[in-house]
Amino acid sequence: MATSPATSLLLSSGHRIPSVGLGVYKSPPGEETYGAVLSALRLGYRHVDTAQVYGNEADVGRAVRDSGLPRDQVYVTSKLWRDAYGYDKALAAVQESVRRSGLPYLDLVLLHCPSEPGPREGAWRALEEAVRQGLVRSIGVSNFSQAHLEKLSRTATIQPAVNQIEVHPFLQRRQLVSYCQAAGIVVEAYSPLSKGHRLSDPRVTGVAARLGVSPAQVMIRWGLQHGMVSLPKSVNPERQAANLDVFGFALDESAMAQLDGCEEGLVTGWDPVSQDPV
Ligand code: NAP
């Protein structure tokens, strides 16, 4: 457990990833996502997490370009949707994501979920090729169980740098997180605020009140102290600022114990981790 988590983590690809990233799932395409990403970059975010299926890659790319920040100072992730799995379709889809973003390359591209084994294997080879072609710096997966990861590692020539999964105090996936971390795969916690469902849980609000921070900051910091990247989503500049302001306090042992005790297997969205075939 890291009581002083770093502001970025080193990936197996050799690149660093900022520990807090802005999620843009359900951030409406067009001016709203553009404005949310631009505001976040001005507030100090250096990491944005989008996906083909969110429909807002172009808005993210435009905001990054308009921010005036050098390209290598902002970390941009996208994800390949399952209808583009299979080698040829996947390679074309990555090229299309890069084109849509208007950026010279993407920092990280993930398989969004395991889906079916055959097309998944082809899609992974396409991501490896995208790295060779310089379209993408690092590649990884999302919603993969240990069994999905073990199968992939047997044929991969580039091992996944990250596994992006739903994790928060109410869904901790401890075994999978330990497996990933032991295998050198960085865990990215999505829906780190439990989509808001447990922000008013008294154990979270109790810790927040004692430490003089907000419940959202407590949830984000809990993930960071467990060595994960955290991807809170907000389109509201005040909440964005608060969600990034998590490096000036620490959760002590009793706070971590209280939050570690919140496990209830709460899946707030979909669950390909346990549902997709190996
Ligand atoms: P989340 O970040 O846990 O929660 C977002 C919700 O909390 C929004 O309604 C947001 O509203 C609200 N919120 C944000 N900051 C807050 C604060 N400080 N206080 C109170 N409420 C706050 O949920 P998520 O969007 O599901 O997950 C985050 C990101 O993870 C996504 O955007 C996406 O990038 C990624 N994700 C990936 C997958 C996958 O399958 N790989 C699945 C789900 C999510 P406002 O916007 O109005 O502030």
Automatic annotation (TrEMBL):
Tree of life domain: Eukaryota
Xref: InterPro entries: AKR, Aldo/ket_reductase_CS, NAD(P)_OxRdtase_dom_sf, NADP_OxRdtase_dom
NADP-dependent oxidoreductase domain sequence ranges: 27-263
Alphabetized PANTHER family for the sequence: 2,5-DIKETO-D-GLUCONIC ACID REDUCTASE, ALDO_KETO REDUCTASE FAMILY PROTEIN
Annotated Pfam families: Aldo_ket_red (PF00248)
SUPFAM superfamilies in UniProt: NAD(P)-linked oxidoreductase
Listed GO MF terms: oxidoreductase activity
Active-site positions on this chain: 54
Official protein name in the record: NADP-dependent oxidoreductase domain-containing protein
Matches recorded under CDD domains: AKR_AKR1-5-like
Site feature (Lowers pKa of active site Tyr) residues: 79
Binding site residues for substrate: 112
